[in-house]
Amino acid sequence: MIWEELDAHLDKVPGIVSAYVGRPGARPTWTRRADATHYAASTMKLAVLVALFRAAEAGRLDLDAPVPVRNSFDSALSGAPRFANDRDYDNDEAVWDRVGGEASLRWLAERMIVRSSNLATNICIGEVGLPAVAQAWALAGARHSVTGRGIEDFAARDSGIDNLVTAADLAALLGELALGATRPGPLASPAGCAAMLDVLVAQEHREDLAAGLPDGTRIAHKNGWVRGVRHGAGVVFPDDAPAYTIVVCTTTDLADGGADGEVEDDACRLIAHVSERAWAARHELAG
């Protein structure tokens, strides 16, 4: 009954709402337009995180080695000029305070997730490369999601190179991380997957999925937003039930919180409502 009620509720929402709820490694209990593509916003940072840890485990990168913190990046569009991030469009002054200096990739990866720093993200992409990010999506079993460019690479965006996700693909990646922390999997070693989950648990933007859970509930998650878009994707770890994956992607006028993402809007409340209802059904999810 919960899922029918949610479908009826979401039928009335303007725009496109996609959702996925299920246990990692099992068939989903409930989906809604799970293969519809949405502009990724900052959920693309999940695949960048996986690419970094994979490169570190393969010996191609040292996460603890310092790298330059510079605000200048190659465009994904061949021949386009280099681009830079707008400090006022970012969420993390700590990274900007280091411009002109150095920081470790591990620290930058953490800031990319917990504060959703765009500058940290583009530095990480510059170090690991977009092909490695594409491989992370592929290994997770993603079918439609793509990370084609860095954030604010407007020349690439205007030429049609974009960042897209689906609820099903985000659930696949997060599900593989959760399973990979317990046994060898395609994304990284169990220790690597556990470390990535710990970074996602430390997420500081908690206005959507986390807001629908009881205080203190462990959730490894990443959200993303621009005006007209709000997504939440995570793995919830109840104390009294097996873990489950939940993703809600919205492309809707309800997402009017702006670029800072810390303004709670109707899209945040909608995602929190879905999260609350999924929590209520946590004992009944398909195994």
Describe this structure in words.
With 287 residues, the protein is an alpha+beta fold. It has ten helices and ten strands. It has helices spanning 2-10, 45-57, 93-96, 105-114, 118-128, 130-140, 154-158, 167-180, 190-201, 266-280; strands spanning 16-22, 30-32, 38-39, 66-68, 102-104, 146-147, 163-165, 218-226, 229-237, 244-251. Strands 2-1-10-9-8 form a five-stranded antiparallel sheet, with helices on both faces. Helix 2 (45-57) crosses helix 6 (130-140) and helix 6 (130-140) crosses helix 8. The two termini are 18 Å apart.
Short note summarizing the structure:
This protein is α+β, with helices and mostly antiparallel strands and 287 residues long. It has ten helices and ten strands.
What's the topology here?
Elements: H1 2-10, E1 16-22, E2 30-32, E3 38-39, H2 45-57, E4 66-68, H3 93-96, E5 102-104, H4 105-114, H5 118-128, H6 130-140, E6 146-147, H7 154-158, E7 163-165, H8 167-180, H9 190-201, E8 218-226, E9 229-237, E10 244-251, H10 266-280
Antiparallel strand pairs: 1-2, 1-10, 3-7, 4-5, 6-7, 8-9, 9-10
Helix pairs in contact: 2-4, 2-5, 2-6, 4-5, 6-8, 8-9
How much is the average pLDDT? 96
Order of helices and strands: HEEEHEHEHHHEHEHHEEEH
Report the count of strand segments: 10
- What would you call the shape? globular
Count of helical stretches: 10
Q: Helicity range of the residues? A: 25-40%
Summarize the main sheet: 5 strands, antiparallel
What descriptors fit this protein?
five-stranded antiparallel sheet; three-stranded antiparallel sheet
